[in-house]
Amino acid sequence: MKKSSALLSGVAALALGAGFAPAAQAIDNPGALIVGGHDATEPYEWMSSLQRSGSHSCGASLIDEQWVLTAAHCVADAAPADLDLRIGSPTWSSGGTEAGVSEVVVHPDYETNTPNGDIALLKLDQAVSETPVDIADASGARGTPSRIIGWGVTCPVRGCGEPPEQLQELETQVAPDSQCTLSSIDGPTEICTASQELLANACFGDSGGPQLEGTPGDWKLTGVTSRLGSPVPVCGTAPSVYTDATAYKDWISSTIG
User: Fold this and answer.
1) Active site residue ranges
2) What range does the record give for the signal peptide (predicted)?
3) Hey, which of 21, 40, 192, 226 would disulfide with 167, CB 3.0 to 4.6 Å?
4) Together in a domain, 229 and 139
């Protein structure tokens, strides 16, 4: 796990509420979307589109033949029958493997409204043949290169367009927690993620999708898209906050058995 900053409270908690996209909003304007990125340059066999009523809602990552990892705020209001997934396709509307959901497991910390715990597991109604992504042992220190991927509009404000069919990617890096303090980041369990490009980062609609560290063809999952790093609802104007999946490896392992 990366080195942590001091926990924030009071004013920071208020900023968290302003910058957080709850599930209903994520569905209206699908998840948190990558702006300033480009079409995916390689296949991501484990990348998944979490869907409601046949439309892309959030990102997710296959981590076991019958389990995917996503953000809690994408599914906290959902019954299994509300959700479907398309796994292993670079387009969210066709190809890959389709699966339903038999169980939704939201991390208990999320249900207590703490600034962390924005992570959830979905059990598929069938095992799939795509190769899962491995979760890293720890997320990198500040300055570590990373990559984020997802489907979504390429404009930076809520409701400004439709998500593209083609999966998008963007090169990013782990930023100091101090750059995400307006969103009340919890250093031990969250990652502040920045881009060197202007107006480029995660945005409304890419929620639940992965942050990756490694090299092309050899990626490890470190983060899960959670929220904007600033209460200003314009994507790319500040780093984004990712749930540090490596901090929850014990919970993930015990849940999926």
Assistant:
1) 73, 118, 207
2) 1-23
3) 40
4) yes
